# Entry
Amino acid sequence: MGQGRVPVNNRSCYPRYAPICHPEPMPEKSPLVRELEEVVEPSHVVWRPEDLLVYEYDGSIDRNNPGAVVVPASAEQVSEIIKIARKHDVPVVPRGAGTGLSGGAISMEGAIVLALTRLNKVLNIDKENRVAIVEPGVVNLELGQAVAPYGLQYIPDPSSQSACTIGGNVGENAGGPHCLAYGVTTNHVLGMEVVLADGTLTWLGGETREVPGYDLRGVFIGSEGTLGVVTKVAVRLVPVPEAIRTMVAAFSSVEAASETVADIVASGVIPGAVEMIDRLCIEAVEPAFHPGYPEDAQAILLVEVDGLRETVDEQAELVEQLCRQHGTTDWRTAEDEEERETLWASRKKALGALGRLAPNYYLIDGVIPPTRLPETMSKINALSDELGIPIANVLHAGDGNLHPCILFDSRDPVQVEKALVAGGRILEMCVEVGGALSGEHGIGLEKQGYLPLVFTDEDLDAMARLKPAFGAAGMFNPGKIFPTDEQREGVPHATIMQRLTVDMVI
Amino acid sequence: MTDSYELDGITPSRVEHPATVDDLSVTLGTVHSDGQAAVLWGGGTRMHVGNKIARYDVAVDMTGLDRIVDYRPPDLVVVAEAGMTLAALQAELRVNNQRLPFDVQSPDSATIGGSLASNNVGPLRSSYGGVRDFVIGMSIVQADGTMTKSGGSVVKNVAGYDMARLHIGALGTLGAIATVAFKIGPVPQTMRTVAAWFDSAESAAVAGMRITNGAFMPEAVTLVAGQRAVAHATELAAGNSGAASDNAVMLLIALAAGSATVERQVNDTTATLGAAMADGFVVLDGDAGYPVWSLAGEQPPPAPTLSIRSTVKPAEAFDLVNALAAGAGSDDIHIVAQIGFGTVEAHWRNQVSPDLVRSARDAVSGAGGIPMIERCPPELKSELDVFGDLGAPLEVMRRLKQQFDPKGTLSPGRFAGRI
# Structure
């Protein structure tokens, strides 16, 4: 790669508690910060080490301090900031809500964090053409609420949707439970206004569903902020379905639930969502949200079908039949919207509820073909037993997108090590059955070491050529996605373990 | 032998027929190291698309790469080689009551690779999106013969850049699509076509938008205008003891789902058509709908002299159809508009004059679209960039070509900005 990445175990720019324990001389504004303050009001330029700590984290287990943080109020300001950063040869990391789970919003190499949270307006809702233009800092759920009065909805619904932003969703090509039938972010974004590395403000794609030329929109989505900064997004909206039915089926084994899912997918019915949670998750969410799951259930399937009333009736009947064939121990249909929301809250907030079971969790994102679910779930259970570390499973089962949550206590180095080994082993399992390293969380810092499991040097070199093509070599979100030279040589576990153990046991 | 691979007046000096992806890699490697230029050929149905080629020595006929590499029906995934025709792939899927939910023009000869590279589209894109929305992975042979891949063969995958997107619509100018992994779906239980005719594009527009934005999504809502639409409407009307206007515009609606659902969709659709004052309509069962859909497919010979495609906002599509139908050369025009997607294709058989081209491009620009000239006489192709003005992104496209094909091995000159 030759991206000049800082060694992984050497990432903290500032010791985190240093300003308190060992006061340092008053820091001074750098020339870069002074120039940024000419573009954005000084109150929106963060540079004091103690203030930067707020931006040290995202939703992942990684952390590192940025060189500075700037919070622009317009696309024009974004463009000016990029030009200044370029002049000073300092890279830039775009950031939405920081809910990402793979370290995408963590600043490396002293990069400036460009927080887009003030660009938070829904600019236009075009009911007739079913398109909305929004700024990147608009929260996913708020977009949904804004378009609901028009009888429309925006499909991708990551579990973090009450906090995560549309700009971040574009960066990560985010998914969510309802992507099974309707596709992920790239299928719902028509175009974006972006700032390129030279400060140029331009649209990639547009408000229409297609523009001539190479599909720059398509490669930009999911590029994890490495090619430019999104300043507006044209999203595709779809009508709210006439009917929705949410059903819950309990099973006495994860395998039986998995076989049911494989059969539902194979039957040709493509429900809006097919989600699974296992025993450990049930234990966590039951006291938190009281969804009323049967106490003895080992796995719960949450299936939602939507569309015209007749379609919903037909599909619900088939789903029920398949669940019964596989011996569901308890079957119920949400009676009303309130019950439906409780059921979904139990699923979407399951991760938060896991805090009841262990101080930390490491959430893995991997994908397998749905027919391999039964054997893979068994293997994950066996792995948990073998390592003696609990693994709770929530998954977008219908599209084979696994989310095993490895539960551990970061104060115990032995547990940390086990968590990392388990994470690596699960990803290897995914690759072995022809799956993918990430379904929706991205590669970021978390998985760059694993890419060589799937991609050859040639594959990665081809990908790397996108950066210079966008004029963005080294400019945006450096040190992400691409494996370091050592990681290309192998031993992803070792490097990740080293990095995490150092950080987490401080 | 090489004559049938003629393009823009240039006949290649040789034709290669790779039978495997490895062959393709060796072939391109040789062309590249010899400093020659190659053009990739699928079924040859859309070779008229693109700028005039600058150099052309070797034709690479991809049709030998015609196998299914992996097909796992219960996982809803198929991986096929790029030279396979769409019809052959659909036939294999049909055995398991599955399909790739997009259609292309000339499916019997159009290949997977060619259809993706040239963004070949059919009516199904109204509801299902473009061909790009079904691609989950791709292997590419680079201009120098290096084999690479991106994505995978599971339906959800965000590991690394989504490189496949680059090659969709790229006319084979950044690399050769070798194999493609698709997300597939079930064949709907019941399919019906409602074909309606109106006395003007305005009245068709009212019905078309109501149906497109209604409670359910039809598989396709396609408007057809021009002399062929009038002839077809007249024939259907006569069979229905009615009459069609001299300016008849047709609206074709495809409905597909379970039988109870389709029954209701047909009722809702025909009620909407009645309220919108359609002159008449017929409801056709399953395969009986094919002849009417051929109206929206390929053109009977002789080939048009000028074809322009553009994508505008759905609501603008009707105004664009009106503007084109009233513009220069409208005495022999054929217009197909995929309403939900906003794609409007217009074909003329008239002598192509600067006036005709200007009037057509103005109409598209006026509707907020970028006119892409897909077919035009050779002298016109030498003069203009058929992609139109792409603005700032063109610079990124130039650099992409520089990164992926610096020696100009793959169809040099053929893409936007003559890159």
